[in-house]
Amino acid sequence: MNIQAIRLFLHVVQRGSLVAGANELNISQSAASRLLSGLERTTGLKLFSRDSHSLRPTAEGEQYFNECQRVLVAVDELPRAARRLASGVQSRLRLASGARLANSLMIPAIGRFARKNPDVEIEFLLGEVQEFSRVISERIDLAVGAMLPMTINTVEATPLFDMPIVAVMRRDHALAKRSFVGPADVAAYKLIASPTGPMRDELEHRFHAESTEFHPHYTVNNVELGCRLLLRLGAIMITDPLAPLAIDPALFALVPLKPLRMLQTSIFTPVLTPESRLIAEFKACLREEAREIEKRVALFWGAAGKAAARSSVRAPKKQKPKAKAKNKKG
Hints:
By secondary structure, the protein is an alpha/beta fold. Helix content is 48%, strand content 18%.
């Protein structure tokens, strides 16, 4: 199959124009038209719905676009693989995570793995939750994240650990000593939130369910930046404890959000790729770091926070009345 035709197809889908796609490959419009027609003839697929203004991919075209993108990433990787083999480096891992997990989980896990496998080449990519579907499709061996914005059939998820969602604030904040807070409590103060994504959707739904307006004063696309910002502004950010833990636990107060909600972090791997020895070893390193994180979070959150969380999810047992002691005549 003509690789140049596939590259042209990808450019046309991304730019919505045959002229723009031809310009990307520095070929004429007529040559580009012949390449696309040949690709449709070879594949037996109708890739575009044509009108006078633009080329729009059909449902078949969109699915074929995803497959072509995945295959071309692998093709473009071949020269790099050859250089790596020629230099004597035999093994490599491509890893990815969101910024929330980079400092607290991935970097320590990479350090732990590298001590056991010093000759393995590692490429670590950073992406936000909103970009996760794209990041995973780029020939990643293993990724770690909390939530996926869409279902990706080619990716398998393995749960790693759960973290409570809490209101993060300065230690001198008016709500810092509360056992728990609800949407109405935090809405009275300045809030920091992500501009888009699953966490933003979750918070908007929760506030709306309690007839409370969700109106953040500040928006940031990085949780760690949000936590640093709240220290300056005296604001509140609703997230899990990982970012405060990575910055400096002594600077923050964590107050459980009621009702308690746990955020699951999972390991994502391609479904059709057999698990290699290196991937299995890196998973083991992640699990060891996850256990360390859970211990630190337990200390950070404190016994009072855990007790408040337990009481928010189940009612206390009623005590039986004590039997009255019978007076004995003496």
